[in-house]
Structures are given as C-alpha cells and as structure tokens.
Amino acid sequence: MPRLSTLESPGCPPLRALTTDSLGLIKVVEVRGKGGGTPQVVEMWGPPDASRSVLCTSFADRKKDPLLIPISSIFQWQIEFFNPLEGDVLATIKASESRNTDQSSSANDPLIGLHFFKSKHEDLSSMLGTLLTCTEKGKVCVRSIAKSDAPSNQIVDSPSEWSVTNGGQVLCSSLDPSENYALFGGKHVELNLWDLNTSIKTWTAKSPRPNNLGICIPTWFTASTFLCKDDHRKIVAGTSQHQVRLYDITSQRRAVISIDFRESPIKAVREDTDGHTVYVGTAIGDLASFDIRTGKMVGCYKGKCSGSIRSIAKHPQLPLIASCGLDSYLRIWDTNKRQLLSAVFLKQHLTSVVIDSHFTAQELEGTKLKGPASQSEASNQPDEDGSKDEDRSRKSKKKRKEVADKKKKKSKMQDEEQISGVDEPEEKDWIDELPVSKRRKHSKKRREKQLE
Known about the structure:
Methylamine Dehydrogenase, Chain H; four-stranded antiparallel beta sheet; 17% helix
C-alpha cells in the first residue's frame, strides 16, 4: 500500500496549468482571484480515446500566440498544434510527414520527444514555426510547420535530418534555453550533445568506472535537462539505477557528481531558475529537491504521491512547481516550505503538465467586473441616504416586537383555555377515595349541615 499523509492545504496563488493524459484529453486547471484558492478544471479539449494517448508535449510559453503541441499515438503518431487559450487546432501533421520515411517504418519507430522553437519566428503569417522531433531509434528531424489554412503553393524549407545513435533506444531529449544545443540519451545510449546550427555532435558522456566487484553499471538514462539558463555546459540526468548525475562538458566526460536517491528509477528531472537546484521525481512517487553544487538533498516534499511521477513543471516567477503522474493527481507545491498547496484529481493517468507563466488574476477580475452585479453584491451596496438605513432598522425592530407580543398573547390565551376547560371533581368522587372512618365522619357532618 502506498504511504499517504493528511496535510492541510493552504491553497495556491493565481495559476493556470495544462495537463495531458492517457486518453488524449487536454485539461485546463486554473486558480482564480487575487487571494488564490483551490484549482478547478475550467476547460477540457479533445475526445476521450485510448488510442490518442499523449506521450510527450512541447509548450511555447509566450504572451502572443502561445502553442501547445502534444504527440498522440494514433495514425502513425499524430502531432497537433493547439491554441492553449481557446483550444483551437491550428494544424495537424503525422510523424511520417515530419521526416522522409514511409509510414510502416515510422509506426515501428515512435516519437519520444519534440520541441517547438520559441526563438525562431517565421516571417510569414501562414507559418507556425520550427519543430524538432526525435524517435526511439535516434532519428532527429528539424522542419518548418505551416498552418492548416496556408496556401498550397507556400514554399517550405526542406527538413534537416540526422541520426544521434547507431543502436539502443533513445528515451529522453532536451534543448537548452538558447535553443542552439540538443541533448539525447536513453537505454544503451550515452548522453550526447549536438549543435543544432551545424548538426554536429560536440560531446559524448562516458560510462562510470566499474565498482569494487568489477561490475559495470549499464547505460540507461530516463530524464535529462540543462542546469543553467545561460550555460549549456552543465547537464543533469536521471537514470534507471535511481541515480542523479551532474555532467560538466568542460571538465570531463564522466559524471562530476552522482547521487543515489531511494530505490526506484528516476522518471522526471526539472531545473530551477536559480541555476543550482533540481527537482527529481521517481517511479514510486517520491519528489525531492537537490542542491547540485554540493550533491546533497535539500529535502523531500511533504505529502506522499501514490503513483509514478511523469512530469514536473516550474513556474518561472513564483516559488511553485507542479507535478503529475499515474495517480491521476495534479499537485501544486511550495518550493520554499516543500509543502503541498493543493491537489486536483483529474481521473486519467497524467503524462505531462505545463504552466502558463503569462496568466494573471487581474485579467480575470477585469472580465468579472464588466458583467452584471450579482444579487448578493447589489443587496450589500449601501444606500445613498443614511436615513434609509435607520428607517429600515427601526421598522424591523418594531415588526419583531409586534411578532413577539402576538406570540406571548396567543400562548396566554391557550393557557387560560386549558385551565377553564378542566372540570372540578364532584364531591362524591373525592369522598369515595377517603378511608372508611373519615368517610363516616364526613357524611355525619354533611347530615348536620342539612338539618340546620
């Protein structure tokens, strides 16, 4: 049985998060109001279908024309481009269209990662942008994506393709914030760094040394990320052997720091904006933060998750992270106190979560103020003249007094009726209840009175 602990959730500040699940649904969870509160599901897009299970997503978090791109396992790995504000589908392509391969080979080589370039803006209004995709066999493709309503004679640049491995299974991929370098790793695939401008491999990791028994740890990377926002040379990766490793490509090929965390594989790794903290989620629901400078754990998060953590998202401004996984819960955490702020049950197994950093509570309040005032708000508004309030209070007091007097008078009348309605007992009745001696004495006195 999973370990569960009951905690008081103080609520979280205004927030907007989007989740994807195993039925292909996209759910929008929001916390409205300046004071914050409890997250609620406000939108749900897509038909529920197990064949449309979302494997991975990419989110273009920008104030103008944001995009959410999930990969579904239907029709040879379908890629859809969503407007995360309204839920409109802007374009739909298949994985076989994103690279020069036939559909049969693409079905046997599914996509495991993608990234939408935020910095590469297309000049034409009919173009969405540039997309990078990677498959399990290491086939990488970078191509431009046109909108669904783009003209047929629109000229699109030819995609660039290359392979990042000759064998093994690629399981994780990530891009640095500058979007100039890409990182790939997986089962029997060492971490390797590629320059996207020249499509040349610039660095490859090296396996750890054998232990004291001469046993080599097999290569099996499950998650990876770049540690610093402005530096692509420091890399953090999680392995299936419950290890968190730090690599510095300017120092050496082997890991600089290796940390063992619990006894289950690492499934999610996310860096913090401070440049030295990483958040780690495991296959049994453990969530913790590490200071990668010293290799020590800062602490575990209070509140046990009951399923594998598959995705962690960090808010760029607020000290918050969101996590989701196979227990169907979206959880919001405070990174300062490592406390659970709120949890939302979303029914399906969740695969990823992203946070909209441009969501503000002021916009929601502005829309609310434009609408008609509610009845309670109208009743709570003060009158123009203070005398009206005094008259209303005086009338209410007088009315309450009249009602109380009526009740008192009614109860008094009922008591009188009850008293008058009771008949006095006859003399014979109470004489019969007396003893025999007293009864004779009383009858003698009664006869004397009659004679007089």
